Amino acid sequence: MENKEIKLSKFEKISLDNCDKEPVHIPGQIQDMAVLIATAPNLNKITYCSDNTESIFGIAAKNLLGKPLSHILDPNVLHDLNNTLSLSSARLHRERVKGLTLNQQKIELWAHINKDIPILEFEPIETEVLTPSQSILNVRSLLARLGSLSDMEKSLKVAVTGLRHLSGYDRVLAYKFDVNGDGEVVAEARGPKLESFLGLRFPKWDIPNQAREIMKVLPLRMISDINGKPIPLLADKSVHTELDLTFATSRGVSPVHMEYLRNMGVGGTMTLSIVVKGALWGLFAFHHESPRNIGPGLRGAAELFTQFFSLQMEQRLETELNVIKTHALEYQQALLGGTQNALGLTELVKELSEPLQNLIGAHGLALVSDDDISLYGNTPPAKMVREIAQTLFENTSDDIISTDSLKAQGHNTDTISGALALKLDEDTHNICIFFRDDADISINWAGAPDKDIVEDGQTTRLKPRSSFKAYQASIKAKSLPWSHKDIFAAQQIHIGLLKADTALFRRLTHKTERQRSIYIAELNHRVRNILSLIRSLSRRTHETSYSLESYAKALEHRIAALGAAHDLAANQIINGIVINELFALEAKPFENEDKSNILIKGEKYILRSDTAPVFALIVHELMTNCVKHGALSVPKGRVEVIIDKGDKGINITWSESGGPKTSQPSSHGFGMELIENAVPYELNGRSQIKFRPDGFWAKFWLPMKLIQPFNKAFQTPPKSRTRRPKKDNMPENVMIVEDSLMLAIDISDMLESFGIKAVKKCASVSQAKSLLSSYLPDFAVLDINLKDEQSFEIAEILLRKNVPFCFATGFGSEYPIPDPLKTQMVLTKPLNANILRDTIKNLYA
Amino acid sequence: MKQVIIMEDNIGLAMEWAAAFELNDCIATLTIDVEETVEYLQSGDYDLLITDLFINRPEGGLHLLRRLSTEKYSIPTIAVTGARVPNSQESDKNIFLESAKLLGAVKSIQKPFPAGELVLMAQSLWADQQQRNAMNHR
Questions:
Q1: Whether residue A558 is found in the same domain as residue A493
Q2: CB A165 to CB B43 under 8 A?
Q3: Residues A634 and A749 reside in one and the same domain
């Protein structure tokens, strides 16, 4: 996931980079709340110590460097220290060694190891607000209270109230970071005199990146006195590196950060990190007007609190995401279910465009492919959408990308600034983009977010702003940012679209194969017909021509028109066709001089591209039969075609008149078969034919879903996919999964009669699975119900391995086929050899 | 909407009480010490004070009540305590709660008690108050 953002000026960038490079983990100084001593790995030599050792040990720091630790600690303490430092956890965070009394002062000794260097912190505890056990009990009841809350907002409110109560700080804030890293105060508990910070936003550069990294691993950071004098860290002459104080509670503070806090009017502060799934979700910030140190006991309890709170938060977020996932799954099901009838993604998405936009919080949706763009809701114009689609995925390998500032990226998108794009194939031929309108966002920044840049010595850096008074900025050319939730929803939709696309592709391939066999049968029939047609044309032309010249001209003209109609039926597979034009084209060769014999009336409707050729054949047969035997076989005959809107579909009425008397024929030829049955069988429509005494009459009803609006180009299947190489012959290796041996032998015999010799038989899923582990058939026949199991698992394996197969099942099988397999061919038992052969041919081709 | 101010150092209890009042359409403010409680009382319009007599601070509810009475600040108050007088002969009387009443608390209650009890107590207190106001008005 990537989020493109406004570019900073070069100067601003350098300054921010410098902030990000400030080595906050090696400040070379500590806060005065503790004494810090670091030693050689075996504790026998003090290598670093803070310049305040005198306050506890009565010995100046410079006199301690180089001495063994036993110089200041008695053997009992050293024994406990050795034990503590042996814990593996002491290399991850501070561990408490014990409470000591040194020079009549109560001291807490904490220790940890960083890069093999033992680091000890001696902290006087006269300031402890609550004892460790009181603190833990309070934290426990606060967590119990929070555990009962599922609402995020409420739980944050309760948390800050509880934390303030527990810690006694003047103000406790909960910040949440957005996808850009800016923080917003989402909950606040404060004393009566303080101004509210609730709703204020803090730009992301307030917390430099390296500080964020430390926050991820260190749950608590306290700065007890903003105006406290930093204590320098002295190093023994034998060491030459800066001491890494990442995990030291007393770690010194960056002067820039001190200035920032002073400007905010803070005397002492503490932060607790909220880390969800390894990322910094937000933080609790504690502010006190005067210096404040709550002591190690309460700090330990607070650390524990924020770690538990983070887990609770993770659970709440997970629940929220599950709600989205449930909705997304519904849409995924709907998308997959839609693949039964829809032709392409365009059509699928059209049905669901509104709920999908709602789920993601978008105002518009575009589906972009190489030769088509479909737009729903509020989107930029098609041409611009294509430009956006092209640029969004430049220089990234991500499948999902988002921006809230299209305009800043150079797209003149008027009132739309948000885009969240999903790549639906590897070569970005197909892209789905959600658009979001500009939002009238007014942001309450904590202080003017303009960046003050100062140069000090060799570096330029940002100067902390001096005022944190709410500064309202309204943002014009931006949409609301895409949240983690939106992006999660997008990921779910992405999966749904990819699944649907795959299912569509498989079904289309299947359907195309079926249509091909119809075309071949039609072609044979047509070749035979064409001769009789030409004979009929020549006869009719002869009857109305006065000279040999006019006869030749008219004949030539009609043969050309016949050719055009033929082309239409043969070639218009790609684009949908206007029904009226289809009739007109077919009629053209047979029109008389004044074009009065063929009348085509009605509105223009486009027939969906995949069904158009079949319908073209029907029209062709109607026309041919009419010319050969019907009304147009005589000069006075007439045909009237009426196309009009019917109930949930289109009615097409064909009526002949003035021809020879017709009567029900004793048997149907291929042409009549096609006219009568192709519409119900292939197009899910209805047909009705009558041999009326005054002429042949037919009425067809085509469902509305076959009718395509104007200007919608056909969606070609994605080009990047590879198909199986075409073969004309039958497969060599076929696997049969069938629990009845007799039936298995039966099928095997059939296959043998098709010339397939290598047939393997399995009776159960486990047999089939073990066979498939070492063998890959070219084709498979799967009985669905195998005694106590179904063969769907095998079907899925075959799908993955790209092996074509068909199911066989007894009539009225009660086992519903799972969604991903619904598009597979199902044959009904007992198997018919011819059907089985055709099925194998079609699927294996 | 009634506004209640609660000074109680045990967070679990304070929040449970606040939640019980919020469920009954009241606004509850939690405070952490005497100083802050006084500041809140002076800066807002509150209908009820609930105070623990001993909190984990140098000054507790008894100090608060004394201070309010010297400053002649009047607010219906419920005093709460978990402290018991050791070896007390009169087991049903708590000397701390009795002192709180002397310092102006209208009602008092000994821990432990369910949060709902506190709300009922507050509601009856407000009802009495309303009746009294009506009588005075007449």
A1: no
A2: no
A3: no
Decide if A282 is inside a domain.
Answer: no
- Chain A CB contacts of B40 under 8 Å are 192
d(CA A493, CA A818): 20
For the segment A323-347, what is each residue's pLDDT rounded down to a tens digit? 888 888 888 888 777 777 766 778 7
DSSP assignment of A446-513 equals ES--PPEEEEETTEEEEEPPS--SEEEEEE-S-BPPPPHHHHHHHHHHHHHHHHHHHHHHHHHHHHHH
Residue of B15, B36, B40 lying closest to A158 (CB–CB): B15
Number of structural domains (chain A) is: 3
- The answer to whether residue B47 neighbours chain A at the CB level (below 8 Å) is no
A703 and A747 in one domain? no
Provide, as residue numbers in chain A, all residues whose Cβ is less than 8 Å from the Cβ of B43.
192-193
pTM of the prediction? 0.59
Asked if residue A810 and residue A674 are part of one domain, the reply reads no
The structural domains of chain B, ordered by start, are 3-137 (3.40.50.2300)
Residue B36 distance to chain A (closest CA, Å): 7
Closest CA in chain A for residue B17: A145
Q: Which residue of A has its CA nearest to B43?
A: A192
Domain of A674 in residue numbering reads as: 545-708
Crossing angle between the packed helical segments A670-683 and A612-628, to the nearest 10 degrees: 150
Mean pLDDT taken over chain A:
82
B11 and chain A: CB distance < 8 Å anywhere? yes
The CATH number for A416's domain is 3.30.450.270
pLDDT tier for residue A134 given thresholds of 50, 70 and 90:
confident
What strands lie across the sheet with B48-52, from one edge to the other? B27-31, B3-7, B48-52, B77-81, B107-110
Say yes or no: A553 and A494 in one domain.
no
Q: Assess whether A645 and A758 both reside in one domain.
A: no
In this predicted structure, what is the pLDDT of residue A259?
Answer: 86
**Do A772 and A820 have their domain in common?**
yes
CB–CB contacts below 8 A, A to B = 45
Q: Hey, how many other C-beta atoms are within 10 angstroms of the C-beta on B45? A: 7
Q: What is the pLDDT of residue A50?
A: 96
